[in-house]
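Summary for the funding panel

The consortium committed to producing paired sequence-structure records for every protein in the target list. Below we show the first two records in order, beginning with the earlier of the two.
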Amino acid sequence: MASVFIDGEAGTTGLGIRDRLTGIAGIELKSLTGDKRKDPAARRALMAEVDLVVLCLPDEAAKESVALADCLGEQAPKMLDASTAHRVAPNWIYGFPELIAGHAGAIATARRVSNPGCYPTGAIALLRPLTEAGLLPADYPVTVNAVSGYSGGGKAMIEAHEKVGGPAFELYGLSLAHKHVPELMKFAGLTRRPLFVPSVGHFRQGMLVSIPLHLETLPARPKAADLIAVLRDHFAGAELVQVVEAEASGKLEPEALNNTDRLELRVFANEDARQAVLVARLDNLGKGASGAAVQNIRLMLGL
């Protein structure tokens, strides 16, 4: 029996992880109640008892929790951080098992793993196979457009949409300094900073990430079939990531994968115009957050 402590289990991601772990044989969940949840001594004591700690905290609080664990020395548990605090940090393994061949094994043996962001999960899945195959240059001027359900925006956004009604649609991050950009660059294999334009719609969960391409500007002048072939080869055998045929209607809605941990990839194209749009669809609370965390927890605990 492996023991797990979710530090920050009362938030959206923490609750999602707890719900998923409750039904898994071989895992015992341990918790703190009341004021002890914010008591450093109580948290450190529980960390010394468990096999793995999941951090579902704001970035600075996540760093403080890591410091608490560091005080335990050899008694320190494995750690999975769902915040953005350690996604590009040295000595942390990025928790996207399908990233490259053998990466799931690296997660399984890691002491510290950073859970990916929801938007980067879709963008990296679309881009990394193409940069690895040489179809997309690392310095290509990439634009990433994305829309998410409001559940990924934290407590204030959730309340705004559910209690007041909220806007039908909003662009945000227009300072072009979104905190997901560094991990997107690093793990997609990009050397040029991409334009990343996120948005939120008036629906609870679900996500679409889209990347437009002018095919004639790519050195290999690929066709859509070439992009699809590379994506399918990269994710061959992946249980949760699928490359599927683009809808003939040219339409795609964001909620079809809600309450699943799946990630779907598509290539929409107009060969006459030599243009394509790569699209990833996922549940921002599933493969984009809690589902990805549980996938990593299983690997880290050998389940």
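The next record, for a separate protein in the list, is shown here:
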Amino acid sequence: MNGTDTSGLAILRPRLPSPLQEIADGRFERRGVRLLLKRDDLIHPELVGNKWRKLAPNLAMAGGRAVVTFGGAYSNHLRATAAAGRLLGLPTVGVVRGQELAGRPLNPSLARCAADGMRLHFVDRSTYRRKTEPATLAALLRSADAEDAIVVPEGGSNAEAVRGCRALGKELGEHTDVAALACGTGGTLAGLAAGLPPGRRTLGIPVLKGGFLADDIRRLQERAFGGLRGSWSLDDRFHCGGYARTTPELDSFAEDFEHRHGLPVERVYVAKMLHALLTLTEEGAFPRGTTLTAVVTGRPFP
């Protein structure tokens, strides 16, 4: 990971490599497609899935300093960062989108962050949109009394995180032909694609609409590796209208998948990805004999 030593995080006892589980599902088998699940949701009970892979190299760089990061009112990234801070004894500050939330009762996600010791700093949406601009970021850090903190971007996707996610591709290695995952900020896909061996490809299912993700992934790979790496593509038909949006069809699919296989299906990311893979399989997108691996990047929070 470009010199970032995460061995100090071994105290958290991550389950790595994460398990690879074959799923018997006639809908895929009829098309000659073998379905595997890469159970990154089992890496750690609180730093779930790609949250571990992206946060670990950033936390290793903190050196005991506070960690500042960003997210919305229901951000799983904020929740995972707060948990990591509690487990490692690191101060954490969460910059939360929505000044109107200040002073109101906290929702369950933010309440969990606060219980884990995260200091919440609410900002208006206009300022939040400009958070990556140097002057705005400096002002935010001053107002949050966190000028000496290490800054982790929204969603945790930066060059260190991308290099951390490369291990996911190496773990899959020759076990898969196509590795698929749901995408938010694109950092996990950028690293996964770089870690897969030649002849394998990565498929990303964006959970936000907008069509901007491909450029973001290219930029992340350039920052992490100095250029583009691996074979990857996106299919942006399955976001259901935007982040955390759903449809009756998606809800029905997720409930059916849970019933068939006894596995909890996280709705914001994983359900959309699995639904996309079934649709693509039925469309004939994968040749017979393909081994398709669905990366389970999260699980439902209580």
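Regarding this second record: The two ends are 32 Å apart (CA to CA). The mean pLDDT is 94.
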